[in-house]
């Protein structure tokens, strides 16, 4: 509010300006203010829903004469990652994978002392999801719906190494750089997952 006052034949303008710092974006501080327990719970929930959605799509596809198809399974995995990163990323960083946690710790972008707890939370979440799927999809389990290497052990190791390196290269290069566009990163990661599952 401006007030005019005249003293000694001069005009002064006094501005009463109150800075409103309450409009500060909560998104920038919420990751820092989340407690460690909240971060672990977010990792358990995120890993649970990721494994549940992805593996359920595989089971539904196998039990219903390939109704979901491989591209459909890929889309389920990609969309699950996208939804979980957007909904839980601000709390825990949305690792949902021990490889991501270890990669962030090795590049000093994640505290090394928190790695065991994060990995334990991720293993716990994925185990709960597997157990839930086991309860839901009852019946005789005489089929293995996982992947089997088509070639030698060396070929399987090399392809897994390349695919994991590719995934971690993109995550480390884009997710840890402040100049990267987050929305484009999420879309790129989803397409990457679709490509991995189809191939």
Automatic annotation (TrEMBL):
Cellular component aspect of the GO annotation: membrane
GO molecular function, one term: channel activity
PROSITE patterns: MIP
Source species: Medicago truncatula
Name of the protein described by the UniProt record: Major intrinsic protein (MIP) family transporter
TM helices/strands, residue ranges: 40-60, 72-94, 115-137, 157-175, 180-198
Family: Belongs to the MIP/aquaporin (TC 1.A.8) family.
InterPro entries: Aquaporin-like, Aquaporin_transptr, MIP, MIP_CS
Subcellular location: Membrane
Primary subcellular site in the record, as a coarse category: membrane
This protein's record includes keyword Phosphoprotein: no
Record keywords: Membrane, Transmembrane, Transmembrane helix, Transport
Membrane topology: Multi-pass membrane protein
């Amino acid at each position: 509010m401006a007030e005019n006052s005249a003293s000694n034949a001069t005009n002064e303008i006094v501005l009463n300006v109150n800075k409103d710092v309450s409009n500060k974006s909560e998104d920038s501080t919420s990751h820092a203010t989340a407690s460690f327990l909240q971060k672990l719970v977010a990792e358990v929930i995120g890993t649970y829903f990721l494994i549940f959605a992805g593996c359920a799509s595989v089971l539904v596809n196998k039990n219903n004469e390939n109704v979901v198809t491989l591209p459909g399974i890929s889309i389920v995995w990609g969309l699950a990652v996208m939804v979980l990163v957007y909904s839980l990323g601000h709390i825990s960083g949305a690792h949902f994978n021990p490889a991501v946690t270890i990669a962030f710790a090795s590049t000093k972008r994640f505290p090394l002392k928190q790695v065991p707890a994060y990995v334990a939370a991720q293993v716990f979440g994925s185990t709960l999801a597997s157990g839930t799927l086991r309860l839901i999809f009852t019946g005789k389990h005489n089929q293995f719906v996982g992947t089997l290497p088509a070639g030698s052990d060396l070929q399987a190791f090399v392809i897994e190494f390349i695919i994991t390196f590719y995934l971690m290269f993109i995550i480390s290069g884009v997710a840890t750089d402040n100049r990267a566009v987050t929305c484009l990163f999420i879309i790129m990661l989803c397409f990457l997952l679709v490509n991995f599952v189809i191939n």
